[in-house]
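FW: tagging you since you asked about this chain on Friday. Here's the raw sequence from the shared folder, copied in full. Didn't touch anything.
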Amino acid sequence: MDKILQMLQLQQQLNDATNGEDWEKGVTKNGKIIDWKRCIYLECAELIESYPWKHWKNIDAQPDYANIKIEAVDIWHFIMSQALEDYKVKNLGSIEDLAKNINTLSNFSNFTTDITPTTKNYYEQIEVVEVLMKTLFCDEATERLMETFIDVAIISGLNLHTLYKLYIGKNILNKFRQDHGYKDNSYIKIWNGKEDNVIMQNILSTDTNISPKELYEALEKIYPKG
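HL: got it, structure written out here
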């Protein structure tokens, strides 16, 4: 199974359902302008905020690696969306072509090995995220953006297998949110004192073989009913 291709296909389906077909033209079915690059750099900023980088506040704190992983997965959603848009609008190829090109990136083999803790201190880890932001602002090729994301995923403690697992979880959670009032702001994000992201991760960690359908059903069972 090509995990990259499957994630790209799921992201295409999610964007089609949420934003309407032809979202690649930059506008949703509701007439809202889409800016994937803004989504990416704001998620990068949220990831950086999970590190205790501030010299004036919480100076003895440790990085929140659980949240760093979630933020990296959020970035991945938007980077895939940008890549899907690029490939369609610029006629660069099919989803299959995009997946193939990602699989042949120079750092992809590092991404498929077992996770080993990074030797970079957290200031150096933040710099890796900032390289991604710089690549984004310099409007470099889609493949270069993917390469810099893989570097971010690796320093965040994710390899292809763990990214895939968390992406599937977040994809189902995003669908669940849309089905339960996320757009009209009626969705409840805190469940019994815990954010829904944490609940989703807890379900995945308890049942590593849970299917997407079963995950959705598990969320449905424990979602606060108001």
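FW: The radius of gyration is 18 Å.
HL: agreed, and Residues 65-89 form the longest helix (25 residues).
FW: great, closing this out.
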